[in-house]
Amino acid sequence: MHYRRLGRSGLQLSLLSLGSWVTYHNQVDSRAAREMLAAAMDAGVNFFDNAEAYARGQSEVVMGEAIRALKWPRLNYVVSTKFFWGLDREGNAINRRDTLNRKYLMQAIDGSLSRLQLDFVDLVFCHRPDPNTPIEETVWAMSDMITQGKALYWGTSEWSAADIRSAWDIAERHHLHKPVMEQPQYHLFHRQRVEQEYAPLYEAIGLGLTTWSPLASGLLTGKYRSGVPAGSRGALQGMGFLVDGLTDPVKNAAVAQLEGIAEELGCSVAQLAIAWVARQPQVSTVITGASRLEQLQANLDALQVVDQLTPDWLARIDAVTRPLAE
Questions:
Q1: Of the listed 3, 24, 54, 186, which one is catalytic?
Q2: Cβ-proximal residues to 31 (8 Å cutoff; 6+ apart), any chain
């Protein structure tokens, strides 16, 4: 395993990490989570990503039960959560959903810590921007969360570069804890934000990235070239919004071309896609997902491909994918 600093912070994260979106509670129970977390840790993974909204809080419950059973020393692993959507989506849930106001944030962290069975989380993210709450209010709340010892570092997910810079400047002006990381989607078909929009922030404020969806929700595995297979992510209840993208004929034709390149490199197209994200020096860690132990191991084997991606190989991959990238 390779390790990189989280932006300009001193925290070291494994280059590949393990996330829980979609899988925990829906496909993975606490027993299976314990097995995969142990295998990941044995392989050198030290970062495990979660969010309040995943499975309406049950993803945190599954991860918390698994970590408690494994009895790892707290210094050995890094856990994250994220806040914005809230857990209560029914009725008059004002101040409890789709917000980053102070009232919601200061209560949300207590709920996550209880579900995770932890005294603190290492990383906490504002899961989406909130146009209805002043950024200054959110910055103060996130900084206070760290001052209270409930989190160690805070950052954003899918925020614009302008809003991230605004949050950082507010924290600098008031001597508050600054945002140090962003969690954006980043894969072969989704590049603009990481490679262009955020580019000025890497040097200016030391922004680190914990990227998600290296396989484009499964599109870059090749499994959707003939439709949506049973048991896949696209077939799960509540994941129907992904189907159009997963079955896009033009992108699936490009995946077929990538499979030929991957075969030449001696890897799967999924491993090629993960390695492609990991080779980006601004990426602190690539969050992968798995519903089975063998899937986890296959993803971890992508590390063996990273150093093979010479400029010539990257040019061939770009010729296939860049014209389709957002």
A1: 54
A2: none
Residues 6+ apart with CB under 8 A from 154: 123, 124, 125, 126, 142, 143, 145, 146, 177, 179, 180
Kindly report which listed range (45-49, 175-179, 217-221, 285-289) carries the lowest average pLDDT score: 217-221
* DSSP-derived 3-state class of residue 79: strand
**DSSP character string of 88-112:** --SSS-TTSSS---HHHHHHHHHHH
**What span, in angstroms and rounded, lies between the C-alpha atoms of 138 and 159?**
13
Radius of gyration of the chain (CA): 19
Distance of alpha carbon 213 from alpha carbon 186, whole angstroms: 6
DSSP 214-241: TTGGGGGGTTTTTS--TTSGGGSTT-GG
Concatenated DSSP letters for 137-194?
HHHHHHHHHHHTTSEEEEEESS--HHHHHHHHHHHHHHTPPPEEEE--B-BTTB-HII
Model-wide pTM > 0.85? yes
Is the C-alpha dihedral spanning 80, 220, 238, 84 positive or negative? positive
Which residues have CB under 8 Å from 270's CB, separation 6+?
A: 215, 220, 221, 222, 298, 299, 302
Distances (CA, A) of 177 to 112, 156, 267, 299: 21, 13, 42, 34
Query: Is 54 annotated in the active site?
Result: yes
Distance of CA 77 to the CA centre of its chain: 16
